[in-house]
Amino acid sequence: MTSFEKRGFAIEVRAKGRRLEGYAAIFSKPADIGGRFTETIAPGAFSATLRTRADVLALVDHDPGRVLARTRSGTLRLSEDSRGLAFDLDVPDTTSGRDVLALAERGDVGGMSFGFTALDEKRDGDRRELRAVELHEISAVMAWPAYDATIIQARSLFLPSPFRSYAERALRLLELSQ
Q: What is the pLDDT of residues 10-51, one digit of tens each?
């Protein structure tokens, strides 16, 4: 029996045009899942979902009552590249949308997460590799996402240059640590 699971990852925020964008999952980055096992995501794990054009939601904290966007309406766009599962979403002018955007701009959002059903996985002792998943949703996580690699940055063309320089340094340090 397959079960619905949730995992967390990195996003970067762009405030221009009320958009959030970044990565909901990073490939090949080990994560400790509650002390039970270490998990990685294989490149291409989301390709089946992306090919079928399934309706994937963007939520706040996995709460279906706090929808930010969805692929069916075109307000959520998903793609895979060599780094991971990239997303770009239009933030709605709702209480949840305004809250997430304000917290992300301040750097107070914990990161990104995703809900899925494992379709193909490899287990080796206390290690698990997700090879193919059915993606149901991605979520902005207000506190602690499952994956330590999670960061969230707020960027805008109108932010003063010292902040842009700090954000660029933080992103570069993250890249170097991977």
A: 444 444 458 888 888 889 998 888 788 899 999 999 999 999
Residue entry with tokens 């992300």: 104
- Domain positions in the chain are 4-177
Interacting residues of 60 by C-beta distance below 8 A, sequence separation 6+? 66, 68, 96, 99, 100, 139, 140, 142
Q: What are phi and psi of 87, to 5 degrees?
A: -140, 160
Give tens-digit pLDDT for 84-141: 998 889 999 999 999 988 888 877 777 788 999 999 999 999 999 999 999 999 998 8
Strand order in the sheet with 84-90: 76-80, 84-90, 19-26, 11-14, 154-155
